[in-house]
Write a structure and sequence with these properties.
Layout: H1 5-9, H2 18-49, H3 53-82, H4 87-100, H5 104-128, H6 130-138, E1 142-146, E2 152-156, E3 165-168, E4 178-182, E5 185-188, H7 190-193, E6 199-201, E7 206-207, E8 212-213, E9 218-222, H8 230-243, H9 247-270, H10 273-277, H11 282-295, H12 299-302, H13 306-318, E10 321-323, H14 326-332, E11 337-341, H15 342-346, E12 352-358, H16 364-375, H17 381-393, E13 403-407, E14 411-416, E15 419-424, H18 426-429, H19 431-436, H20 441-447, E16 451-457, E17 460-468, H21 475-484, E18 488-492, H22 497-507, E19 511-513, H23 518-532, E20 535-539, H24 545-550, E21 553-557, H25 562-567, E22 570-572, H26 578-613, H27 619-638
Parallel strand pairs: 11-18, 11-20, 18-19, 20-21, 21-22
Antiparallel strand pairs: 1-2, 1-3, 3-9, 4-7, 4-9, 5-6, 5-8, 10-22, 12-17, 13-14, 14-15, 15-16, 16-17
């Protein structure tokens, strides 16, 4: 049966557009038409049983018009536009043929069930768009902007520019992407990431359009224009996915045109040959030809794929898994190997302090206070991580150093409270002393893939801090789940062999390749494709984009760079690795349901054709068997909407 998806794709992005309003009520209109058709059939049948032929025929004609108008109009328009006969035209011919030979009831029932299955298909498609429609309605249209003079003014979100400050009060939705300039709150990000628990947000933390500010008033500095927000990207990605058809769907659509011609040719042959070859009467010959026209139509076969694909895409969007097209969703189910970037994918992407070792004559608080006060004025990523750690551990406000010098590539030296400090690499503060400190703990920590920052005061080495880009809590569980699905896992990283080995071990990755440049990652992905055929690449950075494009399926982490998000075929809105296994399970379930639908529909068609040829199938049962199989196929596809 023909899809109404194109109507959706042409709809305006605004939730209240005429196109969207029409599509919202379309299933109800189709169901009302089908119900009216069924009522008229009952009236016609009563008149017929009472011998009132004229009122009976009038009731049946009305049922034909009311129940079949929408599908007939759609079929005729598509036939003219594509210059190709379709399933709707077969149904029109079958219904008219039934009426010609006096089977008004059967023809009307055919129209009725066809109308019901069409309404079900429309319902499936509308259901698959529900997540996007609800998202559209979540974004505020206005924002409370704070001018440079401190005056508050309401403006449309399209008027916001990068750098503007807006006020978001408790209970309100964030109008646009930005970072918190002032205040602290909890944000409900369920609409964006699917995460049900609120996220604690402080100054400089990122917030997204469409999310809810649960506590307190916050000031947000805009970082993206309205059309570039994560919220708008979600809408664009899913709309794109729903318009892009899978290889199976494209094959069925090509197959449909040829199949319709074959059916019509077979019906014409059936109208003549059985009379001469098998001695059937002309009435019986024409009757059997009409039954063939009904039962051989590929309604169920055509409806086997699109409703299932749209349902799966909708299910994924609800869970924060965005597929950019049916082709990627279908390919995901055939996956045999996955390559992962390390930083920001398997790991958190930011170094964290894991160990603090200090001299016996010092106290932990004083050591952290001195180191943190110096490091807060350095722009080095390790210094920023140390500062975050110290601020979390120490309640005292850090002090500004009296003198400070940043020595690029080595570290910093500063004077604080009259004491000279040097903080940086082992070579910078004295390699021999660093290696001998605390019985050579430096070598042990380094062997664990950690980066060591030493601190030296006027009395010698005061202590050290070990930092590491730690593996995400959920990484090992996600990798184990993928293993249970029969998928080989590989880590591709630019880090050293030692660090790669440690991270791979902690992540439970099957194998790893260290010291990878972007072009090396591409070559490794191509090698994996030669070995495993269908391979995915998971990444979040600009350097991952070439590998994402080279893989059979590219998967980007939602917090990754814009380039990675644009290049990938699938986006995980929350950096949640277990979602990959969920996406694969969803894809495999979709592929299984599609196979069930296709096998079932073909089996029913063959059985009905054989029964008709053996003259044991009457038209009413042919109608019920054929159209009933279409309804069952669509209902089977609807199972994918469930969590």
């Amino acid at each position: 049966m023909s899809s109404n998806a194109n109507a959706w794709n042409q709809a305006s992005d605004h939730p209240d557009s005429n196109e969207n309003v029409w599509n919202r009520f379309l299933p109800h209109i189709e169901l009302i038409a089908a119900g009216t058709c069924g009522l008229l059939i009952a009236i016609g049948w009563i008149f017929s049983n009472n011998g009132q032929e004229t009122p009976s025929i009038i009731a049946y004609v009305l049922s034909f018009i009311i129940g079949g108008f929408a599908k007939a109009k759609e079929g005729i328009e598509e036939t003219i536009e594509n210059k190709e006969l379709n399933v709707e035209m077969l149904m029109i011919f079958a219904a008219i043929g039934s009426a010609i030979i006096g089977y008004w009831t059967e023809g009307a029932i055919l129209i009725f069930i066809f109308a019901v299955s069409g309404a079900l298909e429309t319902y499936t498609m509308n259901k698959s768009h529900k997540e996007i429609s609800s998202l559209m309605e979540l974004q505020p249209e206005e924002a409370l902007r704070i001018s440079s003079s401190g005056k508050e003014e309401k403006v449309h979100v399209s008027e916001l520019v990068i750098g503007d400050k807006i006020l978001v009060k408790a209970g309100e939705r964030v109008p646009s992407d930005g970072v918190i300039a002032e205040g602290q709150t909890h944000i409900d990000e369920a609409a964006i990431t699917g995460e049900s628990l609120p996220i604690n947000k402080r100054e400089d933390d990122e917030v997204f359009a469409g999310t809810v500010n649960l506590r307190g008033t916050i000031s947000v500095r805009i970082t993206k224009l309205n059309q570039d927000t994560l919220f708008q990207k979600i809408i664009q990605l899913v709309q794109s996915a729903q318009s892009e058809k899978s290889p199976s769907q494209l094959f069925i659509e090509k197959f449909e045109g040829t199949y319709v011609k074959v059916v019509l040719a077979s019906v014409l042959v059936m109208m003549v040959l059985p009379h001469f070859l098998l001695g059937w009467s002309w009435t019986e010959t024409f009757y059997r030809a009409m039954i063939l026209l009904v039962v051989a139509s590929p309604c169920a076969l055509v409806a086997s794929i699109m409703p299932a694909t749209l349902s799966a895409i909708s299910n994924g969007a609800k869970k924060g898994i965005l597929f950019k097209g049916g082709v990627h969703l279908e390919n995901l189910g055939n996956l045999r190997a996955i390559a992962f970037d390390k930083t920001g994918t398997l790991t958190k992407g930011k170094p964290e302090v894991t160990d603090v070792v200090y001299r016996e004559d010092l106290k932990l608080g004083s050591f952290l206070y001195s180191v943190g006060s110096i490091e807060q004025y350095s722009n080095h990523p390790l210094a920023q991580s140390i500062t975050r750690y110290v601020k979390h551990q120490e309640s005292r406000t850090l002090k500004r150093p009296d003198q400070m010098e940043d020595i690029s590539g080595w570290g910093v030296q500063a004077t604080i409270e009259g004491v000279k400090w040097k903080i940086g690499k082992a070579d910078f503060i004295g390699k021999e002393a660093a290696e001998a400190f605390k019985g050579g703990i430096y070598q042990k920590l380094a062997s664990e893939g950690k980066t060591i920052v030493f601190a030296r005061d006027e009395q010698g080495i005061a202590g050290l801090m070990a930092l590491k880009d730690v593996v995400r809590e959920e990484t090992s569980e996600a990798i184990e789940t993928l293993r249970s699905q029969g998928i080989h896992t590989v880590m591709l990283t630019g880090d050293s062999e030692k660090t790669a080995h440690v991270i791979a071990s902690e992540s439970h990755i099957d194998e790893y390749v260290a010291e990878c440049l972007p072009e090396t990652k591409v070559e490794e992905v191509k090698t994996l494709k030669e070995k495993y055929n269908t391979v995915a690449m998971v990444g979040d950075g600009i350097n991952d984009a070439p590998a994402l494009a080279s893989a059979s399926v590219g998967i980007a982490m939602g917090e990754g760079t814009d380039v990675a998000l644009e290049t990938a075929d699938i986006v995980l809105m929350k950096n949640d690795l277990p979602k990959i296994a969920e996406a694969i399970a969803l894809s495999r379930k979709m592929n299984l349901i599609i196979k069930q639908n296709v096998v079932f529909s073909i089996t029913v068609i063959m059985f009905l054709i054989a029964s008709n040829f053996l003259q044991v199938l009457d038209l009413p049962y042919g109608v019920i068997g054929h159209e009933g199989s279409t309804i069952l196929v669509i209902l089977n596809s609807l199972r994918l909407l469930r969590s």
